[in-house]
Amino acid sequence: MKKVLRTILPAGFKANGVACGLKRSAKPDLALLYSDPAALACAKFTTNSIIAAPLIVSKKHLKSAGKIQAVLVNSGNANCFTGKAGINDAEASCSYLAAELKIAKSSILVNSTGIIGKRLDIAKIKQGIPKLVSGLSLFGIQRAEKAIMTTDTFPKEVSVSLKIGGKIVRLCGIAKGAGMIAPDMATMLCFIMTDARITKQALNKSLSAAVDKSFNCISVDGCMSTNDTVLVLANGTAGNNIISKGKGLQDFSEALGLVCLDLARMIVRDAEGATKFIQIDVCQADNFHEAKKIALNIANSALFKSAVFGENPNFGRVVAAVGASGFKIKESQLKIKLGSLKEKQVKLTVSLSRGKASATVYTSDLTPGYIKINAQYN
Amino acid sequence: MKKVLRTILPAGFKANGVACGLKRSAKPDLALLYSDPAALACAKFTTNSIIAAPLIVSKKHLKSAGKIQAVLVNSGNANCFTGKAGINDAEASCSYLAAELKIAKSSILVNSTGIIGKRLDIAKIKQGIPKLVSGLSLFGIQRAEKAIMTTDTFPKEVSVSLKIGGKIVRLCGIAKGAGMIAPDMATMLCFIMTDARITKQALNKSLSAAVDKSFNCISVDGCMSTNDTVLVLANGTAGNNIISKGKGLQDFSEALGLVCLDLARMIVRDAEGATKFIQIDVCQADNFHEAKKIALNIANSALFKSAVFGENPNFGRVVAAVGASGFKIKESQLKIKLGSLKEKQVKLTVSLSRGKASATVYTSDLTPGYIKINAQYN
User: Fold this and answer.
1) Which residues contact A123 (CB under 8 A, 6 or more apart)?
2) Closest to A110 in 3D by CA, of A41, A50, A194
3) Residues A206, A211: Cα–Cα separation, whole Å
4) Structural domain boundaries of chain A?
5) How big is chain A by its Cα radius of gyration, in Å?
6) Which runs of E-coded beta strand occur in A166-276?
7) pLDDT at position B223, please?
8) Rg of chain B, C-alpha, whole Å
9) Is A113 labeled as catalytic in the residue annotation?
10) Mean pLDDT in runs of 10 for chain B (378 residues)?
């Protein structure tokens, strides 16, 4: 398996990104991912009980459609807390795109990221679609990456290629923040395209495992968005023997895991106002769930994150956060090792002295910059 | 029932506070509350699984002793994560005080607040005890209040008197912040003295109800301390018919509830770096538990708290926090009313349109001051 830089897309995929006017900055705000042939699709969505309109529509299409051919994403507006009208807007944007691409509406997924509680300007999206479609290209992924950004400071892409059963299989993933830099731009979106031939069951299993150890192991401020989505499209054009289990699935899962983990780390690196990238390893736990929950509890401690910002090696913050995690932990079992706080990368290791499981969580420090960014918006 | 300002203590109680040298600032750091006769005691402790040494000793004494005669509290050091030695130190401080007061060691409770993970300088406490005991006074409560402060900016006391069955009953409560202003000074301590005659069962029930709607309904940063304690001592010297149920218990519970709620609000007002006092009412919920959990989820949202600091009336933050609370809530059920953010007191009302229960939670805004305070310490 190797990482590929500035690759073209996996076979059969095209992408594009344009500015349609949703962002006042006139920056790109409308992205399209397209696959021919239509692709198998698996997705993980936010567990927030308030779900944005495009997710409601996308879930319906994922259920009814056999395969997915296009993914439309806008930034600048989350189309969330917009009621029935918001769902109609999401449906309408699918209809416009279906007509332009001459494909079934139900083979389109739609997503949005930006401000919560404001109607989407659907006329601007309609107007942008012809240019978006005509510009679709094998080389368009960089434009798509930029068009899904809200307050991210850099575009996020990871590409990997590997051999499965003698055939070259490629994966390309793109993601945006949880930059959360301006209010309600808290969304984490990730889209992964692959030309692998794989069964739906295997793809879903592989995605669940990858997300559990990547996007579910990062925390910027413990706030969960209404639009979070991780989507993988597999169009099978690599021509490999279909992946369902064994070494093929293992290799594919490793590659998908790498793409997700790299993108998740990029999101933490781009966290609002952050000056430190913090890796928290909890080891010698009874099981992965315990280790991860304890690590996330530390990652979400405002006191710990403030101390790291101040380069203040105070392990009392860690002790209190571990103890508050809900698991019975004896003081005598707890070993804490905090690396140098002078560096940009900080490593904390917490050993529980009672099992063999471990988990790694990534987070950033809490800084006056974070508050400034989230306070100043109107 | 009436609130009393600058009262003397309820009958039978004395208090004092001195500086014994634990704080480098030479400010008062050793407090004593004393009751003659010995008092019935009920306490609520932190649910953090890492528990400070004095709490381990106090729990033992509460179990074995019939009644409690003295409470010794030091600030400047939490005596937590100090292992067996820390427990010995807490035991030793009880022994010194028992000898000086000529009372049973098991009738003494002990508490500490300050830095986690450093041995307590027990010699300083030993040296301070004679002066602490000789200065015990009916008027000493202001000295005790100051001696339990860590980084609180003002002492916290509430006194109430009421008539129960024709007799005047008095309650006096003191507390120290979750100021959390310097690292590991995150502890919330509250001690309430009353001369009421009351059964243990009634006192415990009354305290549970009061704490549930006061100290358990405030959040500064969602971080739970290893030393949190709320203690009530009832020495029965008011001579009222013993309170066990009915109107007497109702009146006493109302008074205890008021003392706890006023002290809890003071703690929020004194929160580190805070510029706003935020009241969050969640109403029309199915039950109190649901309403409170949703309110606390909003209170713990760094995004919401940053927005309030910036006087940025962005209800999208509230929507996302409500949805992330773990309860199924339909968008159409949710009504949000956010009062003016220009004031020092901010009120947020969230209606769930599905039941009759409600809860009120108090919190503060998240400010660069909070981070500065928690980052700069060594």
Assistant:
1) none
2) A41
3) 9
4) 2-269, 277-375
5) 21
6) 167-176, 189-194, 218-219, 229-234
7) 60
8) 21
9) no
10) 70 96 94 95 83 92 90 93 94 98 96 89 97 95 92 87 90 79 54 93 94 82 70 93 94 93 86 88 95 90 89 85 86 91 94 94 88 69
Residues of A in contact with B325 (CB under 8 A): 49
Element (H, E) at A43: strand A30-45
Distance between CA atoms of residues A221 and B301, nearest Å:
8
Per-residue H/E/C for A49-65: CCCCHHHHHHHHHHHHC
Cis omega (within 30 of 0) for bond into B37:
yes
ipTM: 0.73
CB nearest to B310's CB, from A327, A331, A376: A376
Q: Does B306 touch chain A if contact means CB atoms closer than 8 Å?
A: yes
Residue A181's pLDDT is what?
36
Of all residues in chain A, the percent with pLDDT exceeding 70 is 93
Full-model pTM: 0.80
Per-residue tokens: B348: 């947020």
Paired sense of beta strands A357-364 and A277-285, if any: antiparallel
In chain A, which among 334-363 make CB contacts under 8 A with chain B?
334
> Per the CB < 8 Å rule, is A300 touching B324?
no
Burial of B1 (0-12, 13-18, 19+ CB in 10 A): middle
Q: Nearest 5°: phi and psi at A34?
A: -135, 140
CB B104 within 8 A of CB B94: no
CATH architecture of the region B277-375: Roll (3.10)
- Testing the interface with B: which of A374, A376, A377, A378 to mutate, by most B Cβ within 10 A? A374
Q: In what order do the strands lie in the sheet with B277-285?
A: B218-219, B357-364, B277-285, B345-351, B335-338
Alpha carbon distance B157, B155 (integer Å): 7
Mutate to test the interface with B, among A46, A47, A48 (most CBs of B within 10 A): A48
Residues on chain A touching B332 (C-beta within 8 angstroms): 83
* Mean local confidence (pLDDT), A306-320: 87
Coil, helix or strand for A74? strand
Q: Which CATH class is domain B2-269?
A: alpha beta
Q: Is A353 left (phi over 0), alpha (psi -120 to 50) or beta?
A: left
Amino acid, res. A71:
V
Chain CA centroid to CA A107, Å: 22
Helix (H, G, I), strand (E, B) or coil at A238: coil
Contact B303 A374 (CB under 8 A): yes
